[in-house]
Amino acid sequence: MAFTTSNSYYWKGFRDGSPFVFVAIPFGTLFGVLATEAGLDIYQTMTFTATVFAGAAQFAALQLLQENTPTMIVLASALAVNLRMAMYSAAITPHLGAAPMWQRAFAAYFVVDQSYACCTVRFEQEPDLTIQQKMAYFFGTVSPIAPLWYIATYMGAVVGTQIPDSWALDFALPITFLSMVGPMMRTAPHVIAALVAIIVSLLTTTVPFNLGLLIAGCAGMMAGAQAELLFERKGAKT
């Protein structure tokens, strides 16, 4: 019976995660194309996407690699972009923390925006789920996304080797970031964080090795956090 219920929650997760393939396929394809445009071969591209498995961090690292940025700066920048995953992990640890170590290790690799969003909603709606049901649901959410991300990246890398340099597809990278950031501007603290990050990044364009990106990111996060605290205090007084 326990296996049956866990299996049903796996398919519930699969169903909830399926709509995100419409994001994973074009983003994975674009990364594969841009990676080959940046000079990576197919093996390097696939190793990159399999070991990192984080779209925003991959695009950020790729852009810095194109600018011949030192490796440590590339790694630090990708880590800064992916810091939200640490918050995601902390948020779902109360739900999945009792699972066996090997399951938690796999889950840590597959914590992405989509799996976090689906699990947060489901676990709040059904707080009495067993650890087996929760873990089954979690892996169900990433099952339709992860394989298609790898396949799309490979297809993009194959296509990218056939695209003439004159097409200059690197313009798609900043457009991609804009498309990711735009829908996130839902609250005043989000907008304040973005504006501060933009202003600081413009003021730090002369900082060597693109360290202005890290400075701007930290400034934006601090501004957003302070703005959120101020709005919460204001709301508590009214």
From TrEMBL:
It is found in: Cell membrane. GO terms for biological process: L-valine transmembrane transport. The chain crosses the membrane at residues 20-40, 135-155, 191-224. It is a multi-pass membrane protein. Keywords: Cell membrane, Membrane, Transmembrane, Transmembrane helix, Transport. GO terms for cellular component: plasma membrane. The keyword Plastid does not apply. Its main location: membrane. It comes from the Bacteria. Belongs to the AzlC family. This is Branched-chain amino acid ABC transporter permease.
